[in-house]
């Protein structure tokens, strides 16, 4: 009988849990440890809350290491070195691995990345795939090296992006696909069929961390496709917004109108809040939320503002 593979898993958010479940339930895996971030204050009471991966490990009695920086924990590293590891698997861990731990397992460390590498190396591959209007993305598993997301590929699975895809729906698709890809990786290891394919340097692109201000909708400098992709990519976080009379107006849905407006020109008629884009088209901001108010339609918003008088200005 083939011995089980000794594996340690590194991950932190809920995105990492289905893959952890796959490792835990796979009969060929001896899951000898889970490494994750420490508990953090959360909620209104700011009480300490364990990461989802830690919760799973505790529930299933898997040896758990919660560390701020694994590379600076000599006692944990010494404990891991005694586990006769076959490989370490990493997904959304939020820490870099140093040389000592990269060289520790027999097969090395593998990282799961949510794009088809070398496209979109970095922290936000899901959002960038949507921002750029891609029709497909995927999950890559690469052997980790000291350079970010630059290791040889050992497995990938493609995932289609539908027209109505949002950041949230694509996140959920890829979360489940990562677990499927992990099962395939385990089979390749067991059958001694791992093939290490270097990434094509000509195809490298990057997906840096998204900031809140990236959600600003610049109507004067954007066409319909760009605005639409921005809304889909940043749903639910960081969301998209503009300013109405100097108040922040969150924008959840838009609708293309059969008319033209100049770039940045505002139109308020028939209960619609419309604005022109840089391609001459016009959109209606059909579902919005003004700062301090509830989510509503543009018609409801305009009705609420009507009695206050004065001009309504978008992005003054």
From TrEMBL:
Protein known as: Methionyl-tRNA formyltransferase
UniProt binding sites for (6S)-5,6,7,8-tetrahydrofolate: 115-118
GO molecular function list: methionyl-tRNA formyltransferase activity
Reaction(s) this enzyme catalyzes, per UniProt: L-methionyl-tRNA(fMet) + (6R)-10-formyltetrahydrofolate = N-formyl-L-methionyl-tRNA(fMet) + (6S)-5,6,7,8-tetrahydrofolate + H(+)
Cited NCBIfam families: fmt
Function of the molecule: Attaches a formyl group to the free amino group of methionyl-tRNA(fMet). The formyl group appears to play a dual role in the initiator identity of N-formylmethionyl-tRNA by promoting its recognition by IF2 and preventing the misappropriation of this tRNA by the elongation apparatus.
Family to which this protein belongs: Belongs to the Fmt family.
Enzyme class per UniProt: transferase
GO cellular component, one term: cytosol
PROSITE patterns in alphabetical order: GART
EC number from the UniProt entry: 2.1.2.9
Alphabetized UniProt keyword annotations: Protein biosynthesis, Transferase
